[in-house]
Amino acid sequence: MIIALDAMGSDFAPVSTVEGAILAARESDYKILLVGPERILVEEMSKYAKRYNVKSLNIEIVNATEIISMDDHPVKAVRDKKDSSLSVCAKLVANGKADAFVSMGNSGAVMSAALFYLKRIEGVLRPAISTTFPSINGHCVIADMGANVDCKPEYLLQFGIMASLFCEKIIGIKDPKVGLVSIGEEDIKGNELTLAAFDLLKKADINFVGNIEGRDIPKAKADVVVCDGFVGNVILKFGEGLAEVLLKLIKTSLKRHPMAWVSVPFLWFAIKDLRKKVDYNEVGGAPLLGVDGVCIVGHGASNFKAVKNAIFVGAKAAKDNLTKDIKEAIAKSKMDLV
């Protein structure tokens, strides 16, 4: 399994990306293609030479002379910077020299590069970024989380189909429950988009459980949460902020009560488990579903652990033939709707 990593794509690149690649190579038999300016990456790799014996690891540096920043216009940057670390990663997958590529960089540019070099799967109307979100039972999958802010009902149908496959094959939830985000559980609740999407999802070959409200997401009423990218991104960012605030409130409350603070050593493992559950670095990255190849999009503020985990998500998606299954499911869904 060969994974191309955009070594310059993150707020902390190349520090987090290089160490994440090293850890992934140490913990697996994957070959990691570290893509970016060769001089910078050789210098960064040398910092870990003694600690990790990097010469023994299956890591290859692939030179790329340009970098796409978070401030660059996504489409223009991909068009103009053809030798950027991101574009080179996408080309490696398109040319069959890598099984998947991972980037923690400009998400708009990642999507543009994937569409430009990998193309859409035939029949897919819009690719979707599908990410995992903590719930009472573990995790659920949200699609879309920001790739498409203006959607048609047919887009939401395909999001549900593709995310359901991702949830089953990569997350490991058999026959996942699919819910549509709306303002009420009743079939008649929602705007024009959700009302029309409801009818399509109800007819699809998935385990559709109907409308769900925002409060139902952490309660695990659905394993797959379908919504347009505007709503999905708001849910994701709100969830990240809420998790951070809750952990701070717990810490502040413990400090206010001396006797409670004394109990921290006994509560430590529970707090540690909670922190791990809501930490996006544990998830790693989200697949861009609907492009003809495996593309994993990570959080810009990802640390080395997130980079490592994103590499593992990409490898699993490639190994389990997620793209092939999506092709077959989309083709079948078009026939069913005829």
Describe this structure in words.
By secondary structure, the protein is of the alpha/beta class. The protein folds into 2 domains: 1-124 and 290-321, Isopropylmalate Dehydrogenase (3-Layer(aba) Sandwich), CATH 3.40.718.10; 126-282, 3-Layer(aba) Sandwich (Isopropylmalate Dehydrogenase). Helix content is 50%, strand content 17%. It is built from 14 helices and 11 strands. A hairpin with a 2-residue loop joins strand 5 and strand 6 (138-143). Helix 5 packs parallel to helix 6 and helix 9 packs antiparallel against helix 11 (264-278). The longest helix is centred in the last third of the chain and has 28 residues, at 229-256. The radius of gyration is 21 Å and the shape is globular.
Defining traits:
alpha/beta; globular; 2 domains; 338 residues; Isopropylmalate Dehydrogenase; 11 strands; eleven-stranded mixed β-sheet
